């Protein structure tokens, strides 16, 4: 067990968290099902070979600096992001549904990249474990063209017969988030027809609770490895967020712990939340702070944009609407009100970072990650997933500017980090480009009919 506020070193690991905490996750799912009126499928008892299927869900927690801890949610070599837990849980639910009803399932997900990669990895694992066959479970993934660099190779693309029934579509849309509307319209228009003609029931993944249920495990790991006691220093949980599903999942897990779960300590107090975002999509931070992005003045001598009005925003940036990572593509997320209420009750804050700030602190960030056994490549140009770098930069910036009080413990959620050397990119021949609603609908119908 780690001791808050003391120097650490070793990486503490909960092995196969999805299997270990499966009973607790079922408890969380039942609570959500009751709150929603019973329309959410509760994860069933672990399937055969469940431990083998979920053995990439190790979660690490280690101290990486003074009063700074890193929750490593990226230990699946096939995805390198926190989306693994929810994806394996969704696929296991799909397998349970198939076995219980005899229906076939076609998962359909719009994504900026990481969620789709994790789902494809989970389906590939389900095939390899013998839980399900391509005749029973398939998937269509839709990404915006701006996410091309996020697309990763996996077991499905290495075998053409499997890739053909698990296609990856890429759309040229005005705004990256438009893929959500495009895919929702296809489901609304064609799901019933696909079920009638092919026997495939379309499962659409954009439901917050698909992720909150799995992300509740973050609170369970903390309760086991770094429990909050009456004597603990003040604590914040820092996360690079798009919609903050991970923090809402943690909150759900914390609430379950507060009612008492076997084998885990009841936390003494709820930590605050600290949000980290980029200038292109800063809406959760601006909503939390009740402000807007400050006006930036262009400095023609350096070619940079500058501001000094707000400590929560970059002093210098290459562009006032800069995108560091295409993964963080959500504007005005519906989850802001929930997160604002939690921060209003338990404390916290937020900061927006620029790429220049990330690069200025790059060596320091790499050293912190290395203390948790995580290697970030030395060349920033090779990095394809920036969330770990963004959140560590945000914590460093926040401490420097006094946005985090001295002596506060910060648990950093390491939600994603990879480059092409550790997670190879998907080749062009494995991508189907679509331009219209009709082309996407035709691809979904063809996938179910193949």
From TrEMBL:
Domain of life from the UniProt record: Bacteria
SUPFAM superfamilies referenced in this protein's UniProt entry, alphabetically: Tryptophan synthase beta subunit-like PLP-dependent enzymes (SSF53686)
Family matches, as Pfam families: DUF6002
GO biological process: alpha-amino acid metabolic process
UniProt name for this protein: Uncharacterized protein
